């Protein structure tokens, strides 16, 4: 009988791609992949270790599995991902129920690790970070109509608050031929939306060619038959070029959606973060994008309570949010991560102040979001069907305005049966919280 392996994958889409490669390797290696952890011979927890909340979530999941192991409901516990890479010794010491800790550079050895663990061994496997495979067969964990396409690994930006370079190493791009081959394979599998991800997508190709190759890559991806939408996440503001904007504006199946993590708008805070730009340059970028791509949807992320963020700096951030009027915005209280330069900066901000400032920003943004959502009333928007809700007798899905899992939805009715992954035209007639309400025309 095949040994059953379950997996819990946490964190970002890039980590999810790593999980999918490991799952495919396990399936090829003769293991049975199960969606339910109950009864699994081994459970892999593919962790995130980026910020405090992510670490807490990872540890809670490991402890939950430890309880199931004690009760005999599951067999072995294997920890992979960023938390494993970052806290290799501590995991074994603090949670003795764990049977294996696997660093990112040993993901390719997951079959061997599972076999050794199931034979009763305790395993530590930590290859060089650069050994983390940038490609490989994947067992998709997303709905069949969309998939993430990771085009690079690691990060060389060295923002002072961020542990990613120490966890995942320096930025390294995949070869374009490799990316395109995977994208074509995904299209042949029925994927209609590609969500392009990396720690900094706009840096793609700099290590290969000395300049960004993202515009050329997007052009090539857009020609793949069957791909209806290409969405790009994690675009650093200083690397958004006119060439990139032209490609997005002029290519029909590249959705007019830009995710631009700016983190702050005060120049002194940005400098302390080792980020570029200031209030004026960032606002000019927003205005330039909207002038070049009038129907562009702009998303950003912000950090409140960074060390040294004065009341004046915070007020400037609030003013920027009001003036820039992002379509989508997430705001996070600063998390002091050990080993990062920012963690040892003076003038650390009280936790309550950090949280309250974040809530203030989100209150401002919610009003902007609601106003922008209401601007869609009366419009007809192309929508991908993602499911049916029998309780409300309506379908739900996403327009180009919404990235999977992080943005809102459209809830709509239809006089005939629809299928998941199908594209329909929906006329919007109302707004409910973060969602649009409509009907198929």
Give me some keywords for this one.
globular; alpha/beta; pyruvate-formate lyase- activating enzyme; single chain; six-stranded parallel sheet; OB fold (Dihydrolipoamide Acetyltransferase, E2P); 441 residues; 3 domains; Rossmann fold
Walk me through this protein's architecture.
- This protein is an alpha/beta fold and 441 residues long.
- The chain has three domains: 4-131, 3-Layer(aba) Sandwich (Rossmann fold), CATH 3.40.50.12160; 146-374, pyruvate-formate lyase- activating enzyme (Alpha-Beta Horseshoe); 380-440, Nucleic acid-binding proteins (OB fold (Dihydrolipoamide Acetyltransferase, E2P)).
- It contains 14 helices and 19 strands.
- The strands form four sheets. The protein has a six-stranded parallel sheet with strand order 2-1-3-4-5-6, sandwiched between helices. It has a six-stranded parallel sheet with strand order 7-10-11-12-13-14. A five-stranded mixed barrel has the order 15-16-17-19-18.
- Helix 9 runs parallel beside helix 10 (242-250), helix 12 runs parallel beside helix 13 (311-324) and helix 13 packs parallel to helix 14 (351-374).
Brief summary of the model shown:
The protein is α/β, with parallel strands linked by helices and 441 residues long.
Query: Which fold does the CATH topology of the largest domain refer to?
Result: pyruvate-formate lyase- activating enzyme
Count of helix runs: 14
Class based on secondary structure composition and strand pairing: alpha/beta
DSSP strand tally: 19
**Average of per-residue pLDDT values:** 96
Helicity range = 25-40%
Whole-angstrom Rg: 22 Å
| CATH level-two architecture of the largest domain | Alpha-Beta Horseshoe
Quick one: CATH superfamily of the largest domain? tm_1862 like domain
Query: What is the overall silhouette?
Result: globular
Strand percentage lies at 15-25%
Number of spatially distinct domains: 3
- Low-pLDDT segments: none
Strand order of the largest sheet: 2-1-3-4-5-6
Major sheet: size, sense and barrel closure? 6 strands, parallel
Q: How widely separated are the two ends?
A: 51 Å
Q: So what's the CATH class of the largest domain?
A: Alpha Beta
């Amino acid at each position: 009988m095949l040994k059953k392996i379950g997996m819990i994958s946490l964190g970002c889409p890039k980590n999810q791609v790593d999980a999918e490669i490991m799952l495919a390797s396990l399936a090829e290696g003769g293991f049975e992949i199960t969606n339910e952890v109950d009864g699994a011979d081994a459970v892999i927890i593919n962790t995130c270790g980026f910020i405090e909340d992510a670490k807490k979530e990872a540890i809670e999941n490991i402890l939950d599995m430890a309880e199931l192991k004690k009760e005999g409901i599951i067999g072995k516990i294997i920890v992979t991902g960023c938390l494993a890479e970052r806290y290799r010794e501590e995991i074994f010491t603090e949670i003795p129920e764990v049977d294996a800790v696997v660093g990112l550079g040993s993901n390719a050895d997951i079959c061997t690790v599972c076999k050794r663990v199931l034979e009763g061994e305790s395993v530590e496997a930590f290859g060089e970070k650069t050994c983390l495979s940038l490609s490989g067969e994947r067992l998709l964990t997303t709905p069949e109509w969309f998939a993430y396409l990771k085009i690079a690994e690691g990060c060389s930006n060295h923002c002072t608050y961020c542990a990613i370079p120490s966890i995942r190493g320096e930025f390294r791009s995949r070869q374009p031929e490799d990316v395109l081959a995977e994208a074509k394979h995904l299209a042949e599998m029925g994927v209609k939306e590609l969500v392009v991800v990396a720690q900094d997508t706009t840096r793609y190709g700099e290590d290969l060619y000395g300049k960004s190759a993202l515009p050329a890559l997007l052009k090539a991806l857009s020609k793949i038959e069957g791909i209806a939408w290409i969405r790009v996440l994690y675009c650093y503001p200083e690397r958004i070029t006119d060439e990139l904007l032209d490609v997005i504006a002029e290519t029909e199946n590249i959705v007019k959606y830009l995710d631009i993590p700016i983190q702050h708008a005060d120049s002194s805070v940005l400098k302390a973060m080792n980020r570029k730009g200031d209030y004026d340059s960032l606002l000019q970028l927003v205005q330039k994008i909207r002038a070049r791509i009038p129907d562009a949807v702009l998303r950003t992320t912000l950090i409140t309570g960074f060390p040294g963020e004065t009341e004046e700096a915070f007020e400037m951030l609030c003013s920027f949010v009001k003036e820039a009027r992002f379509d989508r915005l997430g705001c996070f209280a600063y998390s002091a991560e050990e080993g990062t330069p920012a963690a040892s900066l003076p003038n650390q901000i009280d936790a309550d102040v950090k949280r309250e400032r974040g809530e203030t920003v989100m209150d401002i943004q919610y009003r902007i979001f609601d106003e922008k959502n209401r601007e869609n009333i009366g419009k007809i928007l192309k929508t991908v069907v993602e499911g049916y809700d029998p309780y409300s007798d309506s379908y739900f899905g996403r327009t180009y305005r919404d990235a999977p899992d992080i943005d809102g939805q459209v809830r709509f009715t239809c006089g005939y049966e629809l299928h998941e992954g199908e594209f329909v035209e929906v006329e919007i007639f109302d707004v409910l919280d973060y969602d649009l309400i409509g009907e198929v025309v």
